[in-house]
Design a protein that fits this description.
Layout: H1 12-32, H2 38-48, H3 60-72, H4 76-101, H5 104-116, H6 118-123, H7 130-150, H8 155-167, H9 174-184, H10 188-191, H11 197-209, H12 211-219, H13 223-233, H14 241-254, H15 256-275, H16 280-299, H17 313-324, H18 329-354, H19 373-387, E1 391-394, H20 397-405, E2 412-414, H21 429-432, E3 436-441, H22 447-453, E4 454-467, E5 470-483
Parallel strand pairs: 1-2, 1-3
Antiparallel strand pairs: 3-5, 4-5
Helix pairs in contact: 1-4, 1-5, 2-3, 2-20, 3-4, 4-5, 4-7, 5-17, 5-18, 7-8, 8-11, 9-16, 14-15, 15-16, 15-17, 15-18
Length: 491
């Protein structure tokens, strides 16, 4: 079926199903045949021993990785299985939510736009906290749409359930609750629900889901909250140089044509909501305004990471679909370009992941993290055996996760930030009393840390991680022995 059929109200679901299944197969292929990113390798350690929560994020990512490994083994596909499958449900949710709020035609457009977003190409094969975060944000939005359409107060219980799942997925999902609160205060009819039991019961359900995260933080001196709130407070004074990065990242992950359509649709929705606060457009705007306002505010003093706006993208697809119904030469041209351009960009992402199309310098190519680890681990293992070392020491979570997954043949233990690994079984002291081989990215190596903890520190030079296109990164190697204090923390 050609893309022009998006303007018809019949026939498109079969094509959408076929496209979704085809893209699932492509995601499986890419996910199974590429190495892990640094963050994925670290999150895999969460899946080895799921816990109430973790330093960097709530626990859902670790839980899903554990489930994926149980199905597909300790493989890249096992780590990523939830990420590969999530877009299937996400597309259904996007279509259903849009159909409830508007109509079948707009729902079809929104679903196709979602499939064509480069964000889905990247997010559909990389397992990060954004996977459950975006999915349960979509579930929350769907439940709100069902309530909006039916007026049945029982939907508040589902809203609370899904919002609660968001609280164990990523702290960003607090903004989903803020959007619901904003919508409740918007009109007298909405505020009337504050006098009924269902929204409050839904809120209690959501808070109950947050108990694991609260317990973990209480047990660990609120370390996770301190880390995330530190991001809010960090940064420079007011500056405008990060706003361009934020907008540029969103344009790239939405696709240029979709980004323009989404901006047009957002503007039109704002005009409708201004006239009618009870409109579905007002509900959509409330769902994105709190997070959008935070991201804009954060960009005025610090960099916004490209993945942070991820929960906004499905609603951006709806705004773009609304704009596609507009008339005018510009919109007509964007309509023709949006899906082909999105799918082409997504295809290029997959091609580059499987085989680099260009060599980018420094950290500008995140896919470089996924290559060269098996050969590097083999070289490190040979050096470890030659040196008579019993374990591998590191000082950064990325190196720790990657070498642990690459199976060096010896325990891989990070010397510092031990709060990251409290969920794992305690390390026997007989291991850390043995000599070790310290391996760390050259620009992150910490010789001073080694001298603080070991009486014997000997520089063994460097090793290089490379792929078929050449060197990627250089790693410092040190032989360390005779601990002068417990090697594994406290920091």
């Amino acid at each position: 079926m050609s893309f022009i059929s998006l303007n018809k109200s019949d026939g498109w679901p079969n094509a959408l199903i076929a496209a979704s299944v085809g893209l699932l197969g492509l995601r499986i292929l890419v996910a199974a045949n590429t190495g892990l990113t640094d963050d994925e390798a670290y999150y895999r350690l969460w899946g080895l021993a799921p816990a109430l929560s973790f330093l960097d994020h709530p626990p859902m990512t670790g839980w899903l990785i554990a489930a994926g490994r149980a199905v597909a083994g300790d493989t890249p596909l096992g780590v990523r299985l939830a990420a590969v499958l999530a877009p299937l449900l996400g597309t259904v949710l996007l279509w259903r939510t849009t159909k409830i709020l508007f109509d079948r035609t707009i729902a079809g457009r929104a679903a196709w736009i979602g499939l064509a977003m480069p964000l889905l190409a990247a997010g559909g094969v990389i397992m990060t906290p954004d996977v459950p975060s975006v999915l349960v944000w979509g579930l929350t939005g769907w439940a709100m749409a069902e309530f909006y359409h039916s007026g049945d107060g029982r939907w508040w219980l589902a809203v609370g359930l899904f919002a609660g799942l968001g609280l164990v997925s990523k702290y960003t999902n607090l903004f989903a609750g803020a959007g619901i609160g904003l919508w409740l205060l918007l009109t007298p009819a909405n505020r009337a629900w504050l006098g009924r039991w269902q929204p409050w019961a839904g809120g209690l359900i959501a808070l109950a889901w947050a108990i694991p995260v609260l317990l973990w933080n209480w047990q660990h001196h609120w370390a996770s909250f301190d880390k995330q709130l530190g991001r809010v407070a960090a940064g420079e004074g007011v500056t405008y140089r990060f706003i361009g990065e934020l907008l540029g990242g969103m344009i790239g992950l939405l696709g240029p044509a979709v980004a323009v359509l989404a901006a047009v649709g957002l503007w039109r929705a704002a005009r409708v909501a201004r006239r009618d606060l009870g409109s579905p457009e007002a509900l959509l705007l409330c769902s994105v305004l709190p997070l959008g306002a935070y991201l804009l505010s954060h960009s005025l003093h610090d960099r916004v990471q490209a993945n942070w706006p991820a929960p906004l993208y499905p609603v951006m697809a709806i705004f773009a679909a609304l704009a596609m119904a507009s008339t005018g030469r510009l919109v007509a041209g964007l309509n023709r370009a949006a899906l082909p351009l999105g799918f082409v960009l997504s295809g290029l992402i997959y091609l580059h992941v499987l085989h680099p199309l260009v060599r980018l310098s420094g950290d500008s190519d995140p896919t470089a993290q996924m290559r060269g680890w098996a050969a590097l681990a083999a070289e490190i293992e040979a050096k470890r055996e030659a040196a008579g070392a019993g374990w591998i020491a590191t000082s950064n979570y990325a190196t720790t996760g990657q070498l642990a997954f690459a199976a060096t043949g010896a325990p891989v233990l990070q010397l510092n930030e031990r709060v990251r690994y409290g969920h794992l079984p305690p390390v026997p002291s007989e291991i850390t009393r043995k000599p070790a081989l310290y391996v760390e990215l050259q620009r992150r190596a910490e010789p001073a840390l080694l001298h603080q903890r070991f009486a014997t520190v000997r520089d063994l030079g460097t090793v290089t991680r490379a792929d078929s296109n050449g060197a990627i990164d250089t790693y410092s190697i040190y032989f360390v022995a005779d601990p002068s204090r417990p090697p594994l923390g406290p920091d």
